[in-house]
Write a structure and sequence with these properties.
Layout: H1 2-13, E1 16-17, H2 23-32, E2 39-43, H3 45-54, E3 58-64, H4 71-82, E4 86-90, H5 92-98, E5 107-112, E6 128-133, H6 138-150, E7 155-159, H7 168-174, E8 183-186, H8 189-198, E9 202-206, E10 212-213, E11 223-228, H9 236-241, E12 244-247, H10 259-278
Parallel strand pairs: 1-4, 3-4, 6-7, 6-11, 7-8, 9-11, 9-12, 10-12
Antiparallel strand pairs: 2-5, 3-5
Helix pairs in contact: 3-4, 6-7, 6-10
Length: 279
C-alpha cells in the first residue's frame, strides 16, 4: 500500500530537475532576496502549510526527491495538488540553490505577497497596532509579528528602515503569522504614526528611561505601540510627538531589551488590562 502511494506521488511530480542553471533557480532566489515585488518565498513544510491554510495563492512548489519518504510531505503534496498548485521535483543540489537557509528544507514554494493591511489594521473599537520603527533584523521583525498575533494585536506596521516583513527570514521568524495578520510597510515612520492617530489611536512610545512604568499606563483603549529598532531606538522626533512614553522596569545593570521582547511585554500587558477591564 505504501509503495503504491509513493509511486503515485512521484508520478505526479514528474521529471526531476537536476541542473542549478535551470530558470527555476533564478525565480526562487529572486523571491528569497526581495528582488520581486509581488512574490514571496515560503521555506519549509510549516510555512507552505500555513500559506495554504491562510488562503494565500501559491504559484508553485518544489520538493526534493526524498519527498515520498516523509508522511508529512506526502500529505502536503496531496493538499497542494488539490489546490491546483504546480509541484516540481528537484535534486538536493538544486534545493540547496532554491532555499536560502543553511540547512535547506525539503520543500519551498512561491506565493503571492499578501496585500497591505490598510484599514484592517485599525478595525474594531480598541485597535492595538504595533509600529516597528527601524527594526533592521528580519528575525526580530518576524518575532514581533508573531507575538503581535499571539497577543491579540490588530496589526503591525513595519516603518522607516525596517526589514521586509515578507522576506524569507522575517517569514520564518513569524512562523506563519505574517500570512494572517494585517501588515503594512512604509519608509515614512512619521506618516505611519500620523495614520494611527487619525484612526483614533493613542500613541505610546517605548523609551529605555524616563518614561512612565509600563504597568502604570492605561492600555485599554485604541493604541499604537511604537517599538524602536536595534541600537539607537526611536528617533527623538517620534518620541517627542507621542502621547505617552513608557519604560519597562529593568534591574541594573541591564539598560535595554530586544525589540521583540519589548513588543511582547507591551502587547501582553495591553491584553491583560483589556481582559481585566471586561471582568
Amino acid at each position: 500500500m505504501g509503495r503504491r502511494h509513493r509511486t503515485t506521488v512521484l508520478s505526479f511530480l514528474g521529471v526531476v530537475i537536476s541542473s542549478r542553471q535551470n530558470p527555476i533557480v533564478a525565480r526562487y532566489r529572486a523571491a528569497a532576496y526581495g528582488e520581486t515585488h509581488d512574490t514571496i518565498l515560503l521555506d519549509g513544510a510549516h510555512l507552505v502549510d500555513e500559506g495554504l491554510a491562510a488562503g494565500i495563492r501559491l504559484r508553485e512548489a518544489a520538493v526534493t526527491t526524498s519527498a515520498d519518504e516523509d508522511d508529512q510531505l506526502r500529505s502536503l503534496i496531496d493538499a497542494l495538488q488539490r489546490a491546483h498548485v504546480d509541484v516540481i521535483t528537484v535534486t538536493t543540489a538544486v534545493m540547496d540553490a532554491l532555499s536560502p537557509v543553511r540547512s535547506p528544507s525539503a520543500i519551498v514554494a512561491l506565493a503571492d505577497r499578501p496585500s497591505a493591511g490598510g484599514d484592517a489594521l485599525y478595525a474594531g473599537t480598541a485597535a492595538m497596532v504595533v509600529i516597528a520603527v527601524n527594526v533592521q533584523d528580519p528575525g526580530n521583525l518576524g518575532a514581533i509579528v508573531r507575538v503581535a498575533e499571539a497577543g491579540g494585536a490588530s496589526g503591525v506596521v513595519a516603518a522607516g528602515a525596517c526589514a521586509d516583513p515578507f522576506g524569507w527570514k522575517a517569514l520564518r521568524g513569524s512562523m506563519g503569522s505574517a500570512l494572517r495578520l494585517p501588515i503594512a510597510a512604509t519608509p515614512d515612520a512619521e506618516a505611519a504614526v500620523s495614520r494611527a492617530r487619525q484612526a483614533g489611536c493613542r500613541i505610546v512610545a517605548t523609551s529605555p528611561r524616563d518614561g512612565r512604568p509600563l504597568f502604570d499606563v492605561d492600555l485599554t483603549g485604541a493604541h499604537a505601540l511604537i517599538i524602536g529598532g536595534e541600537g539607537r531606538g526611536l528617533p527623538a522626533a517620534l518620541m517627542a510627538s507621542a502621547d505617552e512614553r513608557v519604560t519597562i522596569p529593568m534591574a541594573a545593570p541591564v539598560e535595554s531589551l530586544n525589540a521583540a521582547v519589548t513588543a511582547a511585554l507591551l502587547v501582553y500587558e495591553a491584553q491583560r488590562q483589556r481582559i481585566t477591564s471586561r471582568q
